[in-house]
Amino acid sequence: MTDILCPVCGKPNPPEAETCQFCQAPLKTSAFTPDFDEESDLPDWLRSLNADQNAFPVTSPAEEPSNVPDWLSSIGGETKEKEQPPSEAPAEPAQEQPDWLTDLTKDQPVEPLSADLPVWLSEQAPAPATPLSDEKQDWTDGWTSGEQAAEQQAEGEPSPSVPAFTFDAFEEPEKPTASESESGDMEGPLSTLPDWVADVTAEESEAEGGEDEAALAPAQLPSWLEAMRPAESDQPSTPTEDLSGASAESSGPLIGLRGVLSAEPINIRMRRAAAYSLKLRVTDEQKQRVALLEQLLADEPKPKALPAAPVITAQYVFRLLIALALLLPVIWAVASNGRLTPLPDASARPGVMAMYNLVERLPADAPVLVAFDYEAGYSGEMDAAASAVLEHLLGRGASLALVSTSATGPALAERFMANLNQQPERVNNPYTNYANLGYIPGGSIGLYSLAKSPRQSLPYDLQGVDVWASGPLSSVNGIADFSLVLVLVSDPETARAWVEQVGPTLRQDGAVLAMVASAQTAPLVQPYFSGNPRQVEALISGLAGGGAYENASASNGPARRVWDAYSLGLVVSVFVILVGTALDVTYKALLPGKKGK
Amino acid sequence: MKTIFSLINVVIAIAAGALVFLGYVFPDLLGGMRAILLQWAIILAAFALLVGILNLMQAHWRKVTTKQPKAVYSLVVLASLVATLLVTALSGPAGKWSLWIYNNLQVPIEISLLAVLAIVLAYAAARLMRRRMTWYTGMFLVTVLLVLLSTAPLYLIGEVSLLNSLHSLIVDILAVAGARGLLLGVALGTIAAGLRVLMGADRPYGG
Amino acid sequence: MSALLDAYGNILGLLLALLCLGLIILFVATGRNKPGRNLREIPAFQRFRREVGLAVESGKRLHISLGHGGINEIPAGSALVGLTMLDRCARAASISDRPPVATSGDPLLAILSQDTLRGTYHDLNAERLYDPSSGRLSGLTPLSFTAGAIPVIHDEQISANILAGHFGGEVALLTEAGERSGSLTVGGSDNITAQAVLYASAQEPLIGEELYAGGAYLGAGSIHAASLRMQDILRWLLIALILIGALFKLFTGGG
Predict the structure, then answer these.
(1) How far is it, in rounded angstroms, from Cα B89 to Cα C198?
(2) Of the given ranges (A44-48, C20-24, C109-113), which has the lowest mean pLDDT?
(3) What domain range is A440 assigned to?
(4) Residue A351: inside a domain
(5) B193 interfaces chain A, CB cutoff of 8 Å
(6) Is A196 part of any domain?
């Protein structure tokens, strides 16, 4: 079954619904087809209204003048209908009208109208002044009708139900007839209509009633109005739509017209609009979805933590194997304290021999500047490489001035000297002819300042003593006054800084610069030693150089103690690299499709 | 206002850099000014060291207060810093307890890191062919092996004259030559970087 | 020759500096008409640019390590290049949820890295992205700096590590940490030892002066490309001088 359209809001409703679920308007009876079978439920005034509808015959379009538009002719028909006396409508006696209204219409003449004019237009001419009591439709009649209803109600008589928008026509037939207009008793809906409409019905009723009357003299129309006259050929002779089956409006301003949309369907119950709650009805499912959306939006700016990578991987195992392969032999070699591997030959290393000869040529109490410019991490190598040299220097009676361009250098120097003095032969006769002058700030800039004036750069030692005032350093006024400048360095840039900032000043005055460099620095310092003229007079590179120096000085220093472990470690490293490379090459050769990282 | 400060920064940087550079070129004329500016730079570097330490403390403190992962290590850093500061201030930089901290904590830790570095380098060399298998990678590995073998007398074998000759060739000639070439390129790059600062094109000082 | 250099070395240095300056200005002026000058492809920078985009998309961050070389030291040049690369990284990753982090081993460098980041975000009108802890001093000695930078690589969801500055052999510990955390490592240093270590351990090493070309390859401005061309010119000039000197010494019998 098809849905029923609501006559008020036009929305579809289920066929079994009686009222519209949107606007609560009744659905069963149509405004266009009043259900006369249900008149028993209707109030009296409404019932009478329906009766009036039946009393008004529909005039056929053929009866209408051909030059009148359909809509206009329908008004004429309505007028004619209005002229029919209501069969059931009770005729109420005319009410007394106010005198001012009577006077208003008394002197208005009625001019004859042209037969060519539309009825409504011809009737727009000044209508004859008829006493108000002679006029049918008048809004005051409706007023008095309403007052009458109120009086009836006050007296206890059941009064017809009055809709919210009160039209007096609901109490009376809405289409007043000519007789009614003559009697001035306009009790229908048109009782509240304007005067001109009342005049129209009155005039038409007169015209209807008096067919035998003489035709009105045609009025002289202006040319422009003549031009506006629709051609007779354009006017449909017959209506385009058969309205004979349509019901005529029984109420409202379209009373009597057929086939029009009802302005006031009789089934409308003007009632108060339904009150809708402002509170949203949120279901549980909707609440869950809202919460999910809020959570998604809140998590949006938060970076998500990525899953942790597994700890045990093939690379981890391989690293562990390499570490064990390197550590175990070295630990064994240190623990066994073997001396199976000979120290390097000093004669094959020119830098080592140059250093040895330099130290041998130093006079007693010679001031020597020693710079500890290596990091603590390299102390294992540097201590072993430089121990023999410093022991040789101290054995020659040199006075050492310890400096450093590294912030931890002074502590490193103290540690070095403490280690030297912990040797069994030095326990009772420790070295004391050294002064720790501390840290040189500014890096290369500080070295430049040191080269210009060491007294100004480092006026006191770490204990706050002015070592330049007395002692071995009292004869030192400039850096070139040092018999030897020995730099212990692990970084090539630091070595270059000493060569470039301090070297020119030393060369200028014939002073000597020597270095003990780590194995990684030696290749970059080598050109300074190999060049002509030499900028570095002597060079000991790494543990091998220190071992060679120990070999030359016949001392038993730390280089000898770790030499076996060192050489074994080198061999094992070569073995590890070879095996790893072979495995990688074999892996790539056997699986050519896979790309190695 | 910010534009004015930026302009002032640029002017100061360019002027200071130009004066120091010209002080090297004309030492008699601008040597004194250069020395003064360099002294100021040393003092600024010292203050920058203090600022850097404060920045380090702030970063780790923030990590602790915001309870970030592994914040306990930041707490250890802060506690160590404060303890060392107090001990050194009371004992002196060459004092007994200062040296005890240095000798028993810093030196062993750094030596251990360097030992780990040795293992890492061995592992990296072992995996090098897997990462990039090219002919110059092979040459690189061969050079590494030869230098390792020729650095010191072999275990139980002693010195091998062939290896000694190869060592001299590689280290004293080939490596030095290559290093010189790289250093020249680095020097040119340093010149370019310095000139960009002197021109005001590069403004690392927030200009 | 040595006496000549000793006597006029300063003047020669000034002339060299002026020559370099003039070449840079010339190439800047002429380069405006030829903006599409082809640069040799360096795989490290190609992969670096790609990695920056991946870091932004994956919500990870970049780690730029500036090394432990000071501004008032010989390695200042590499430090300045590192700051330039930091600036470019910050600009490229400005839309990322996690801004890049810079570690350094020198106090002056740490301050400059903070200033660089602040200036970059100010230029991008994104000052809300600036965090002072993004430019950190991770240690005062080379090994302590390395030890302080390793947790940054492991714990802060690093997508790529860019090592641009002065490093020593200890840089292998940083590359190892990068490999363990699964992040890319692009590294360059002015130190020869570090370059050898980076060649063996980093995915994308920058050898020699490739580090100093970082500004030109990352679009830091036309002056970086111009200075790169200047370096090329001077390199050939030095090669010519070395060859001439060697031949001169060969034919004159040394001395």
Answers:
(1) 40
(2) A44-48
(3) 346-567
(4) yes
(5) no
(6) no
Q: How far apart are CA B116 and CA A96, in angstroms?
A: 124
Overall number of domains in chain A: 3
Mean pLDDT (whole number) for C189-218: 91
pLDDT band at C11 (very low <50, low <70, confident <90, very high): confident
Same-domain status, A379 and A522: yes
- Locate the chain A residue with the closest alpha carbon to C141: A375
Domain boundary among A144, A160, A186: A186
Neighbours of chain B (3+ CB pairs under 8 A): A, C
Are residues C168 and A491, on separate chains, in Cβ contact within 8 Å? yes
pLDDT tens, A262-273? 766 555 666 777
pTM, to two decimals: 0.69
Maximum mean pLDDT: which of A2-11, A39-48, A230-239, B194-203: B194-203
d(CA C8, CA C2): 10
Residues A480 and A534 in one domain: yes
Cβ contacts of A120 within 8 Å, gap of 6 or more: A72, A75, A76, A200
Same-domain status, A11 and A126:
no
**What's the ipTM?**
0.89
B74 CB neighbours in chain C (<8 A) are none
Assess whether pLDDT exceeds 80 at residue B1: no
For residue A296, the distance in angstroms to the closest alpha carbon of chain B comes to: 24
Look up tokens 């209509």; give the residue.
A193
C-alpha closest to that of C80 among C186, C164, C3: C164
Classify the phi-psi angles of C81: left when phi > 0, otherwise alpha if psi is within -120 to 50, otherwise beta: alpha
Task: Mark which residues 134-173 of B lie under 8 Å from A by CB.
Answer: 141, 144-145, 148-149, 151-156, 158-159, 164, 171-172
Q: What is residue C196's predicted lDDT score, i.e. its pLDDT?
A: 93
B196 near A CB under 8 A: no
Q: What is the pLDDT of residue A102?
A: 57
Q: Which residues of A touch B158 (CB under 8 A)?
A: 341-342
Q: Are residues A4 and A136 in the same domain?
A: no
Over chain C, what is the mean pLDDT? 88
CB-CB neighbors (< 8 A) of B133 in chain A: 584-585, 588, 596
Residues A395, A500 within the same domain: yes
Q: Cα angle at A243 between A240 and A246, to 5 degrees? A: 150
Beta bridge partners of A515: A487, A539
| Residue A363 shares a structural domain with residue A482 | yes
Q: Are residues A420 and A482 in the same domain?
A: yes
Which pLDDT score is estimated for A146? 44
C169 contacts: CB under 8 Å, gap ≥ 6: A520, B117, B121, C193, C194, C197
The answer on A549 and A472 residing in a single domain is yes
Chain A residue numbers with beta carbons less than 8 Å from the beta carbon of C97 are: 301, 303
Q: State percent of chain A over pLDDT 70.
A: 62
Distance from CA of C100 to the nearest CA of B (A): 15
DSSP code of residue C140: S
| Maximum average pLDDT range among A118-132, A299-313, C161-175 | C161-175
Section A495-511 average pLDDT: 91
Instruction: Indicate whether A490 belongs to any domain.
Output: yes
- B63, B127, B133, B190: best to mutate for the C interface, most C CBs within 10 A: B190
Residues 90-129 of B with CB under 8 A from C: 109-110, 113-114, 116-117, 120-121, 123-125, 128
Task: Let me know if residue A421 belongs to a domain.
Answer: yes
C90 SS3 class = helix
Instruction: Kindly tell me if the per-residue pLDDT of A174 is higher than 50.
Output: no
Last-in-domain residue among A161, A186, A211: A186
Report the share of chain A in percent with pLDDT over 90: 32
